[in-house]
Amino acid sequence: MRIILLGAPGAGKGTVAKALMAYDGSVQISTGDILRNAVKNKTELGKKAQGYMGRGELVPDDLIMEIMESRFGEPDCEQGFILDGFPRTIPQAEALKKLLQKLHLKLDVVVNLDVPREVILDRLTTRRTCSNPDCQEIYNIKSKPPTEDGRCKKCGAPVVQRDDETEEAITKRLETYNEKTAPLIDFYRKEGFLKTITSTSSDEIVSIIRREIGST
Ligand code: AMP
Fold first, then answer.
1. Where are the domains of the chain?
2. How are strands ordered across the β-sheet holding 194-197?
3. pTM surpassing 0.85?
4. For ligand 1, what atom is nearest to the CA of residue 84?
């Protein structure tokens, strides 16, 4: 499958992407995960991105497009991809359109996960993430807790709260989403790819998407 998951931070894109991967070998591509790894490993990209991320702002489009151009060239993308957190701006969406045309690839669907603001705020403040860059399993202290001593149930690494999940950074990320990313909903509606889903259950969202792209 080749899909884009749109939605505010905390809408469930990461959880849904991970669940979808299991079905046909399509790979989840999360620009947020790629950037967090780069920050952790103190690479040039990480040094450039860190300040923006900590403030809850977007990383410049040209850096993101460099990441994506090289990511699409990797062999694991051949089976399909689930874009999680990209594109985030109209210029990124325009650049992605050109890149896909160049690669002769067509999207199946762009899913807009439309989740009420109260649910988003509650999820983001209670979310925890596995600190192992190769795992990054997502937990929630209320609905999906890690082990009692705060470790990942899959790989055993410590589970942490992300630096950009302070109240201040969350407020800024939601503002950034409304200003820069929400316009993509109209962009993809006009392109004829948009499917809006209002459910808050990841299982239900996954079934709707699979039905939509005919993989059930
Ligand atoms: P996420 O994990 O998708 O919420 O991303 C975490 C942070 O990484 C965002 O708040 C941005 O600072 C940055 N980021 C991730 N994806 C993008 C993107 N496509 N464009 C610009 N910045 C991004």
1. 2-26+79-212
2. 27-30, 81-84, 2-6, 109-113, 194-197
3. yes
4. 3
CA R_g for the chain? 17
Whether the CB-CB separation of 191 and 109 falls below 8 Å is answered with no
Identify the residue whose C-alpha is closest to ligand 1 atom 12.
53
2-26+79-212: CATH topology = Rossmann fold (3.40.50)
d(CA 200, CA 89): 24
Could you identify the atom of ligand 1 that is nearest to the CA of residue 88? 19
188 lines ligand 1 (CB under 6 A): no
In tens, the pLDDT along 112-165 reads 999 998 899 888 999 999 999 888 898 999 999 999 999 999 999 999 998 888
Residues marked active site are found at 13, 88, 127, 162, 173
Q: Does ligand 1 lie within 6 Å of residue 139's CB atom?
A: no
Residue 214: phi and psi, rounded to 5, are 70, 35
